[in-house]
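User: Hey, my collaborator sent me this sequence without any context and asked if I could get a structure. I don't really work with proteins. Can you help?
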Amino acid sequence: MDINFRDPQLLITALSHRSSLNEKSQSGTTATESNERLEFLGDAVLELAATLYLYQQRPDEDEGKLTAYRSALVRTETLAELAKELGLDQRMYLSKGEEQGGGRENTSLLADLMEAVIGALYLDQGFPAVEQFLQAKLFPKFNQILQSKSYKDQKSLLQEEVQAKSYGTPVYQVVKAVGPDHDKEFTVEVLVDGQVWGVGTGHSKQAASQAAAAAALQKIT
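Assistant: No problem. I've predicted the 3D structure and written it out in structure-token form, which is a compact way to encode the shape of the chain:
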């Protein structure tokens, strides 16, 4: 990640999953708290920055379309992809158990990490620095979102695709739910004609279903 933090400890905190605090000697973190508070802040900062960007870039679009664009731009999969591109997945501090459980590949965890880093950057250098970072790293993905029409509801798009190909109606089922009630992560499978076409995770059943639909769309297109 090519950002020099004035306060390096902010970045360390942003990279520290809560599991790492229980195994500091093994995880290597020097943080005194997890990245959850920074994630909370970064989520709000990111939403504002994305809103301003789209408002300026798409002056003829209505509120509904702008909301759909923003949702696609800041959704879990997009942020997780960016985190990997920046190498944050390898720099994240995790407990041994979380790492062995695939934490560095967990899209929800990576998206949370990306939001925490944005929150840390905001505290370290202010909103203009965040906008500059996002202009360089995240917002260029908007053209791809437009071309692929991935701003549309993924479940609706999948329904259109399977109908066009004369397949059965997609069926969504929750196959796993882990974590405490305030931070539960769901895993959903989407089945078409009895076969699993896609698997998705999210902090709500709806988000996980959308991710599963997106995975299915990638498979058939």
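In plain terms: The beta strands are 171-178, 185-192, 195-202. You can pass these tokens on to your collaborator as they are.
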